[in-house]
Amino acid sequence: MRAAPAASGCERQGDKGEPAVHGSGAHREGIWFLSRLGNVGDGSAASAHLREDLEALQPAAICALGQLPRDALAHCYPEIDGHVSLSQGSAQRLRLQEHDVPVLITCFPNAYRRVQGKTLRDIVLQRLREWPAAHA
Asked: Whole-angstrom Cα distance, residue 59 to residue 82?
C-alpha cells in the first residue's frame, strides 16, 4: 500500500464546541480516515453530520481509528457493530446510498501505548496491510 497525502479534511464540533470527529481523505486510494479529536462522549454528537458528510464525499472505503469514530459510525449505520474490540480490529461494510462501502474499525495508532507487547501503531499498520480494501 502506498501512502497518499491527505488531500482534504473535515472537522465537526461536539456538544461543547470541541472537535468531535476529524476525517481526512487519501484520494488516491479513496479511503476516508476518521479519527478522534477531543473528548465528546459516546459518538452521538460526532455522528450529527457524519452521514451527510460521507454521502457527499462518497469514499471508496472508510477506516475508523478509535472508539469515537467506531461509535459514531455505529450510531449512524445500524449494520456497523459498535462493540468490536479496537485492538482486534474488524472489517465490516456499510450501505452508503446505493453502494456497499468497506469499513475497517481499529484502534488509534498511538506509538507509545502497547497491547500484548505491540504498539497500537504497529497493530493499525498490520490491520491496514491485511485489509483488502486498502489494496484495491
From this structure: 20
